[in-house]
């Protein structure tokens, strides 16, 4: 799957956190799947702004000034849209 820059997105389009390029700021649109309650407990809530800091086996993200590492499987359940 090709990485997309947030600037390349249309305002209405969504993608998973896995698809976002490192360094991009996005807004969480929806959490969908098993593990979503745990993500919400960690601060990944709808309408929150997230910056993807690193990719790889685990993704490093910044949410509310806190750095969190989540698995690629969990990142696949985080639907995001361009900051707008």
Please explain how this structure is put together:
The chain starts with 14 loop residues before the first strand and ends with a strand. Strands 1-6-2-3-4-5 form a six-stranded antiparallel beta sheet. The mean pLDDT is 85. The longest helix is centred in the middle third of the chain and has 6 residues, at 36-41. A hairpin with a 3-residue loop joins strand 3 and strand 4 (58-63). It is mostly beta strands. The chain has helices at 36-41, 72-75, and strands at residues 15-16, 25-31, 49-54, 58-63, 66-71, 78-82. The radius of gyration is 11 Å and the shape is globular. It has one domain (6-82): SH3 type barrels, CATH 2.30.30.90. The chain has two helices and six strands.
What distinguishing features does this structure have?
6-stranded antiparallel sheet; mainly beta; 2 helices; single chain; 84 residues; SH3 type barrels
Largest sheet: 6 strands, antiparallel
Q: How much is the average pLDDT?
A: 85
Give the CATH superfamily.
Ferrous iron transport protein A (FeoA)
Element-level helix/strand string: EEHEEEHE
- Number of extended strands: 6
How would you write the strand order of the largest sheet?
Answer: 1-6-2-3-4-5
Q: At the third CATH level, what is the topology name?
A: SH3 type barrels
What CATH architecture would you give? Roll
Helix content: 10-25%
Large-scale geometry: globular
Q: How many domains would you count in the coordinates?
A: 1
Total DSSP helices: 2
Question: Low-confidence segments, ≥5 residues, pLDDT <50?
Answer: none
Please report the first level of CATH classification, the CATH class. Answer: Mainly Beta
Classify the beta-strand content into a percent band.
35-45%
Radius of gyration: 11 Å
Termini separation comes to 24 Å
Computed structural class: mainly beta
